Amino acid sequence: MDHLAAVLQDRQLLLERCPHLNSPEALTATENLVSLVMGFASTQHQQEQEVDLTSVVSAIDNLADAVTNSVSDFLMGDDDSSLHPIGIQDRDGDDGDDGDDGDDGVDGDAETDKDSLQNAALLSPESVDLRATSLEGGVEAALGYAKSLARYGKVVAAYLERRGGLDAEYGKGLQKLSQTFRAALMQESHMPLQSVYILHTEQELELSQSLSAANACLYTSSFTQVRLEHDRRRKEVRDLWSRAQRKLADAKIAVKKSQQVLTWRQEDLVKARASTSSTSSTSSSATSSTSSSATSSSSLTSSSGISSKVMEKRRKAEEEASHKVEEAEAAFRLCLSECGQRRSELNELRVEAVSTVRSLVTRWDLALQEVTVRHQQHLLSQWCAAASSCATLGDSARLHEAARPYAIFLHSLQGPVRVDRLPLGGPPLGGSQNRFTGAPE
């Protein structure tokens, strides 16, 4: 039995590498070999008698011949349907009216190449970054797409994780079922389609192990790290961009305030100059009127002293207003310079932000592509192999001959032969009808 298990394991490894060798003839030969070995295992209590292994050797030779024929058919190209997917033959063999449309084909190829070049140019990193920086609100749009991609990635990751959990749970149940009934199926010998069910339980055991390892194979730590890194870097870029925008907005507000203060200071200076000018003209007119009239020198001295004090006060106010205008102009120029600096920093950050977002989106897209390909390949390796195996086992079941295991069982029995047995073709016992079934003999 150990040697039989080793042979079946080697056969399964060969079929996993070369599924096209899983032919109905090879499966039938395997079924015959299993039936013979199980029959010899049931007669182990007769160890004192010599066992004829000729039939077992012949069954092994038949299995080898079936596998060899499958390999020969594959190498000779007889099994075309299993080697070429649907549609390749039609595409390669569709000549149509190529001879009449030669020029149109050349023009079509040229247009296709041109479109491909244009698409490649549009999808280039430089073109993508330029488009994002040239649009009004392009950085916000890029960050919004990155946020939507993060939400979408969480949904995909949750689906794959839940899908892997369901596969693992199903694999555990399938493994328990196959192990339980495989042992029960092997207790008897020479049973109809016994090898089919034994092989089926073995394949389900392998499928259960593959399903149990699906979650670890697909939802790896690297996929989680890329997703978390994408979310963290996206938030960093978003915060930096928001702070830079707030700084520019504050700088613009400071420019408006300093401009308003400068306007006020200029208006105050104009008022101070007007007041000084009016005071100077009033003082000049008063001096000329007092000099023309015959007044005393004491009154002239008193009037000129008051005028000079007012004039001095107005001149000081004008100088102070002029000084405040200069300070307001300096503050306004400083705010303008700071606003220009903030705008330049924002433009530089704009380029860095769109480039960073593009790299994050590309990295996340590649990680999602990798896990999607692994998931689909995993499903393909599981269900296509199971479908092929089920189809082969079904074909083997169709080729099953009724009562053949019973005949093999009877011929495998060893012991003395009855002397009073009837010859073949002798009269049946009990008349013309079968006493058990009532059917005519």
TrEMBL record:
Residues annotated as domain F-BAR: 126-405
Protein's UniProt keywords contain Coiled coil: yes
Region feature Disordered, mapped onto this chain: 80-112, 273-323
Sorted UniProt keywords: Coiled coil
SMART domains per record: FCH
Pfam families for this protein: GMIP-like_FCH, RHG29_45_N
Keyword check for Transit peptide: no
Compositional bias segments (type: Low complexity): 274-308
Bias kind Acidic residues: ranges: 92-110
InterPro entries in the cross-refs: AH/BAR_dom_sf (IPR027267), F_BAR_dom (IPR031160), FCH_dom (IPR001060), GMIP/FCHO2-like_FCH (IPR054713), RHG29_45_N (IPR057028)
Signal peptide: none
Protein name as it appears in the record: Rho GTPase-activating protein 45-like
Annotated organism of origin: Petromyzon marinus (Sea lamprey)
